[in-house]
Write a structure and sequence with these properties.
This protein is α/β, with parallel strands linked by helices. It has 19 helices and 10 strands. The strands form 2 sheets. Strands 6-7-8-3-9-10 form a 6-stranded mixed β-sheet, with helices on both faces. It is elongated.
């Protein structure tokens, strides 16, 4: 598979093929799931259209017979019949509207759920290039555009298609001569639709892309509001967003202008043809070649046909716009993850032992194949062993965790847990064997209890509180306005860095996995809390395989083994005292940190 695409910034040079109405095809299965509702809507639509087409017949009879002196009593019957037809039309139209609109809502709800589910299955390589704000725009703006296609737009299109076919048929029945003249002008209306549809689709897609970029800019900057204000970047950011919003407006204006021109031309051509035919019909009435009722009937059918054709021009523009949105959604659904479960996944052994093997590992990030992070790296972590990995920035420490969690697959070599190759296992089962405490903990806009139970949704309140207590978090959580039920705000902005870190540690403790991964897990804690959390971690690490990534060497002194990495290779390994005695890279890093700390204390 090729590198994950940058979903929202494709060049428009091949938009003609991607933005064709074929883009709606991947969306059709979601409509087919609701075939019963769609069928009922079509029945109601057919009844409403038939009732509409009956009205001119009643009008003709009323004009030709109801107004005659010798048929004076018939006028009541015609008006009663008209009321009956209108009643059927009203009920059928209301039923059709309800069924079609709820069908659109249902289809889009299913589609949004499917797209989001697909996004959760895509691996980090996809998100290395895609922007979350733009993806959110696809889930909202694009699906809303599609909703109108399967809802109001579909209803209008089908209704007018029924009316157009019925009106043309009854026009021919009423007056073949005049109908021939009307039908002769239909190509003049249809051909502009066909040839201008591509331009409308291209401009609609450009408008959607520009709007998505503006949404991405807003999402990115609002999520970093404190940094924006700290650096006094409000004015520059406002200017950037204003420019993006203006660009979105310009693109939408161009798309709307194209659709307005298309609609206006269609309505003018359709109505002008009716006016011309009406002029000819009036002369036929004066010459006695047709009755006034027949002309009225023909006129009503011609107006129905012209109105239907005019509305179909509007609908065509909306469908063209929806095709662009559907193309974007289809691109997301067509993107396949690099990391997938094999057809017959191999089960991990039970009970778990926690052995980790990196065998002849070579790896480069997708999109940067010429910059290898590792080359033929091998080492083993025994079950229950506490191993720390240290080294300068860029040595590859965090990348090891990425491969162990199987966020990426190696270019060559293997990562094994308890003898099972990562590529032979189901990724979900594989990751259930590990609990991660990242360097930058992620806190969701939910309650503190929900955040702790994120990896264990069935945990009891007692288990949640026990995990929080072990992570030295229970005290400050109970002090919150609503205790553990307090909502923490987006990204946990109401908490300090140390509090967020302890919450992440509680989450990992509650997961109770056989392998514990700590990526700078105590980096945001002060000395007192670091001691409390380290004591809790020492307890949690018992009988678990633990892999610790650390820059602060004070956190790895008690490790069973320390691996020193540099340039993607292990250059030293051993215990703290042994490595200091060797006077290598580890000893140099230790002197830099511990001497700096001593000097800071001396000058304090």
């Amino acid at each position: 598979m090729t590198d994950a695409p940058k979903i929202m910034t494709d060049a428009p040079n091949n938009s003609a093929s991607r933005d064709s109405l074929r883009n709606l095809k991947p969306i059709l299965p979601y409509a087919k799931r609701r075939a019963g509702r769609a069928g009922a809507a079509l029945v109601a639509l057919a009844i409403a259209s038939a009732a509409t087409l009956v009205v001119p017949l009643a009008v003709r009879g009323m004009i030709d017979k109801g107004f005659a002196v010798d048929h004076a009593g018939a006028i009541n019957s015609y008006f009663i019949a008209l009321i009956g037809v209108v009643s059927v039309l009203a009920v059928a139209s209301a039923t059709r509207y309800y069924l079609v609109m709820t069908l659109g809502e249902r289809v889009v709800a299913d589609l949004r759920a499917a797209v989001f589910a697909h996004l959760t299955r895509l691996d980090p390589a996809f998100y290395d290039t895609a922007l979350s704000g733009e993806l959110a725009s696809r889930l909202s703006a694009d699906t809303t555009q599609i909703k109108s296609t399967f809802g109001a737009t579909a209803s209008i299109a089908l209704r007018n298609a029924f009316l157009l076919v019925g009106a043309v048929g009854l026009m021919v029945y009423t007056s073949p001569k005049l109908s021939g003249l009307v039908l002769f002008g239909i190509p003049a209306v249809i051909l502009p639709l066909v040839f201008s549809g591509r331009a409308v689709r291209a401009r609609s897609r450009a408008a959607q892309d520009t709007l998505a970029e503006a949404n991405a800019l807003a999402t990115e900057n609002l999520s970093a509001i404190r940094i924006m204000q700290a650096f006094g970047a409000e004015a520059a950011t406002r200017a950037r967003f204003a420019a993006a919003a203006e660009g979105a407006y310009s693109a939408a204006r161009d798309a709307t202008g194209a659709r307005a021109l298309l609609t206006g031309c269609g309505i003018f051509l359709a109505t002008a043809s009716v006016v011309g035919v009406l002029w000819l019909g009036a002369h036929d009435v004066l010459a006695g070649r047709m009755s006034a009722g027949e002309l009225s009937q023909f006129l009503l059918y011609a107006l129905f046909g012209a109105s239907s054709l005019g509305q179909l021009t509007e609908v065509w523009g909306e469908i063209s716009a929806a095709a662009g949105a559907a193309g974007r959604i289809a691109e997301i659904l067509a993107t396949q993850p690099r990391v997938t479960a094999p057809a017959h996944p191999r089960a991990l052994p039970k009970p778990p032992r926690g052995e980790i093997v990196f065998e002849d590992l070579s790896f480069a990030y997708p999109g940067r194949p010429d910059r290898a992070v590792f080359s033929h790296l091998s080492f083993v972590i025994a079950p229950g062993e506490k191993v720390a990995i240290v080294g300068p920035s860029g040595a590859g420490k965090s990348t090891l965790l990425q491969l162990l969690m199987r966020f990426y697959d190696p270019v060559s070599g293997a990562v094994r847990i308890d003898g099972v190759d990562a590529r032979e296992a189901d990724p979900a089962d594989w990751r259930r064997r590990m609990a991660l405490v990242p360097q930058e903990p992620v806190i969701f806009a939910a309650s503190a209890a929900d955040n702790i139970a994120y990896g264990a949704p069935n945990a009891t309140r007692a288990q949640i509180e026990a995990a929080a207590e072990q992570a030295a978090a229970l005290e400050f959580l109970r002090a919150l306005p609503e205790g553990l039920e307090t909502r923490l705000g987006e990204r946990g902005v109401t908490l300090s860095g140390g509090q967020r870190q302890r919450l992440a540690i509680a989450r990992a403790i509650l997961k109770d996995a056989p392998i514990l991964l700590l990526d700078e897990a105590t980096s945001a804690l002060d000395a007192e809390n670091e001691m409390l959390v380290q004591e809790a971690l020492d307890h949690v690490m018992q009988n678990r395989t633990t892999l610790v990534i650390a820059h602060r060497l004070a956190t790895v002194l008690a490790a069973d083994r320390i691996l020193v990495m540099d340039g993607g290779q292990i250059v030293e390994q051993g215990r703290h005292a042994d490595l200091v005695a060797r006077d290598g890279l580890y000893a140099r890093l230790a002197r830099l940190q511990f001497n700096a700390g001593a000097e800071a204390l001396a000058t304090a």
